[in-house]
Amino acid sequence: MEEERKKESEFRIKIDRESDSYEEFVEQIKSSIEAKDQSHLKSLLYGAHPADVVTLFKDLEREEELYLFRLLSIEDQAYSLIKMEEETLESFLEELSVDEISKTLSHIETDETTYLLSYLPSAKRELVLANLSKTDSFEIRSQLGFREYSAGRLMSKDFATVSITDNVRKGIINVRKKAKEIEDIYQIYVTNEDGVLEGFIPLKDLFLTPINTKIAKITNFSVFAFHYDVDQEEVANTFKKYDLVSAAVTDDLGRIIGRITVDDVLEIVEEEASEDILLMAGVSEDERLSTPILQSVKRRIIWLNVNLLTAFVSSSVVAFFEDTISKIVVLATLMPIVAGLGGNAGTQSVTVVIRNIATGDLSFSNWWDAVRKEFTIGVLNGLALGTVTFSMIYLVKGNLTLGLVVGTAMLVNMMVASLVGSLVPILLKGMKIDPAIASSIFVTATTDVCGFFFFLGLATVFAKYLV
């Protein structure tokens, strides 16, 4: 075991892209593939984890990737497929034969099988399913029938159960039989004679309890379970809140049909976080480094056009005050300060509110607390920044009224920015629209329009004191 760990550690040093030896190592891999020297390749890959092998694919041609992939054991092939990026996986599966894909599926759990099959064209998927046993094919088809991004899609159908009417001896026998098929067992689920979930038993408790004890006596009836149609984001939030390692999935009658484990949830958290970050910037959540340029342009240009529209609205507000700006030219140099800081304040509020919505800390029951807090922060920041702005302009320009106009506009725009920044995500959530998609665009547009309007409006009112 110690030797294996040492080899894994050595291999990870070799594939560190920051190391001086990385390029040389990749060249050795390429040369061995070209020469079809399998023994040398195996020695180069000795101690490699399948996930580490996948990182090498980024510097290999597709034919080289396939050659390296087929050199792995069937079990490692299955694991490496799961660890591939989505776009790489989709194109990679197109290259593999139906028989190759079918063999890998026998080494992974049903949730991972469902994940891989979802990237296959329907015709090829049917051929793969037909190549599996009737039992496996039926289970996978039923799981593919669940809504995407739901607990039903996320769950694995590999779990261990015992009957509440059994004793510990019988329970241990059942678990030992099932353990041959399951990768990890965290909890033993307890059911009644109809398969309805009653509770759970930690694996340790089952084996440490006297064998003649009734299962009912050691059952924990406070069991966490999700209906199969619950959204995966809610699943992730519950796992985080209650520090779960495993949870059951039930059908409409409360019968257990699967389980979700913490490793599945970690992937969801990463997916959801990445999606929100990209959407806040108006970028598709599917975009990767490998995404074709024209495809990326097509995905981004929609939101850029929306930004262009809002920019025209802002410019029309400025145009409305052209006479004032032409008379007091210094206003043109100060406008970006008010609008820019308002935009930043709004973005801060949007980010905080969206994060709290995502983690489940903010809901429709406490939305007012969030809005009130953000608005108060906006007022205090507005007063502070307004005072600083007033002082600096007065010192530099020597005009008290100009300093008051900019400082007041700054205060009002910061208040509006915080209010809009906290309200827009909540309103979008209520309208069943992902707050990360459009919040920043609406907030930036509002702060620009309001910032220009308040600043130039006040300047127009007090124009005679500014000349």
TrEMBL record:
Tell me the InterPro entries matching this sequence. CBS_dom, CBS_dom_sf, Mg_transptr_MgtE_intracell_dom, MgtE_N_sf, MgtE_transporter, SLC41_membr_dom, SLC41_membr_dom_sf
CDD domains per the UniProt record, alphabetical = CBS_pair_Mg_transporter
**From what superkingdom does this record's organism come?**
Bacteria
> Does the record carry Protein transport as a key word?
no
Q: Which UniProt keywords apply?
A: CBS domain, Cell membrane, Magnesium, Membrane, Metal-binding, Transmembrane, Transmembrane helix, Transport
**Localization:** Cell membrane; Membrane
Signal sequence span per UniProt? none
Q: Which residues form the CBS domain?
A: 218-275
Spell out the SUPFAM superfamilies in the cross-references: CBS-domain pair, MgtE membrane domain-like, MgtE N-terminal domain-like
Taking the first listed entry, what is the main subcellular location of this protein, grouped into a coarse class? membrane
Q: List residues traversing the bilayer.
A: 301-322, 328-354, 375-396, 402-428, 440-463
Q: Which Pfam families match?
A: CBS (PF00571), MgtE (PF01769), MgtE_N (PF03448)
Q: What topology in the membrane does the UniProt record assign?
A: Multi-pass membrane protein
PANTHER family from the UniProt entry: MAGNESIUM TRANSPORTER MGTE
What quaternary structure, including any partners, is listed in this protein's UniProt entry? Homodimer.
- Family, per the entry? Belongs to the SLC41A transporter family.
Biological role stated in the UniProt entry: Acts as a magnesium transporter.
Protein's name according to its UniProt entry: Magnesium transporter MgtE
Which taxonomic lineage does the organism of this UniProt entry have? Answer: Bacteria, Pseudomonadati, Spirochaetota, Spirochaetia, Leptospirales
